[in-house]
């Protein structure tokens, strides 16, 4: 699993809040074009109900979740859900700093949103030290009819494999994959840090 390659800027480490309780504080950001469903994914995880008719994010939206892993480790996630509109993209770069995990989200019914993931990855590499950055590719809206998909499961998997990052498919309507992507990503990241990742 790839945590990126090193660059010049210093990457912060997740803060260990309470050593006796093994509680981590970790920053996660969501990147992707407008209307791919970044906010809907967070809202579903927060409320466990379908997220419908949400307004477009202006700037950023902040969420925070606590995830308790099976081994008893508690992880506090500070989540920054960024706007996908081009007008905000220059302002979002400050939120890249100190990030530990990045969800790169695209819409499986819109091919161009997957193509734009290349842009988001290049932006990250220019702005932050990505040596320890955990990247995850998410194909959202997987509940749609098969004939409306422009990106198949296999195509999403191939794209992620070429980037050496994990791939998940999610739906903020049915909830498919949402709990899994949060929990598995946090579990993998904590394991990486526990095994000596810096």
UniProtKB/TrEMBL annotation:
<dbReference type="GO" id="GO:0003924">
    <property type="term" value="F:GTPase activity"/>
</dbReference>
<dbReference type="Pfam" id="PF00071">
    <property type="entry name" value="Ras"/>
</dbReference>
<dbReference type="InterPro" id="IPR001806">
    <property type="entry name" value="Small_GTPase"/>
</dbReference>
<dbReference type="InterPro" id="IPR005225">
    <property type="entry name" value="Small_GTP-bd"/>
</dbReference>
<dbReference type="InterPro" id="IPR027417">
    <property type="entry name" value="P-loop_NTPase"/>
</dbReference>
<keyword id="KW-0547">Nucleotide-binding</keyword>
<dbReference type="GO" id="GO:0005525">
    <property type="term" value="F:GTP binding"/>
</dbReference>
<protein>
    <submittedName>
        <fullName>Small guanosine triphosphatase family Ras family protein</fullName>
    </submittedName>
</protein>
């Amino acid at each position: 699993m790839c945590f990126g390659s090193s660059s010049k800027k210093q990457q912060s480490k997740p803060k260990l809040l309470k050593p006796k309780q093994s509680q981590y504080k970790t920053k996660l950001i969501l990147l992707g074009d407008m209307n791919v469903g970044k906010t809907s994914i967070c809202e579903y995880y927060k409320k466990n109900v379908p997220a419908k008719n949400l307004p477009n994010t202006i700037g950023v939206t902040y969420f925070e979740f606590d995830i308790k892993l099976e081994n008893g480790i508690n992880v506090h996630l500070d989540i920054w859900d960024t706007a996908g509109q081009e007008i905000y993209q220059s302002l979002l770069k400050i939120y890249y700093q100190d990030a530990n995990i990045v969800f790169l989200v695209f819409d499986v019914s819109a091919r161009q949103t997957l193509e734009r993931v290349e842009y988001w990855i290049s932006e990250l590499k220019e702005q932050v030290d990505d040596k320890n950055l955990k990247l995850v590719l998410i194909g959202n809206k997987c509940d749609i009819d098969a004939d409306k998909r422009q990106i198949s499961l296999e195509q999403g998997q191939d794209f992620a494999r070429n980037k050496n990052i994990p791939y998940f498919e999610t739906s903020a309507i049915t909830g498919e994959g949402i709990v899994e992507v949060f929990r598995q990503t946090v579990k993998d990241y904590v394991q990486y840090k526990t095994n000596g990742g810096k």
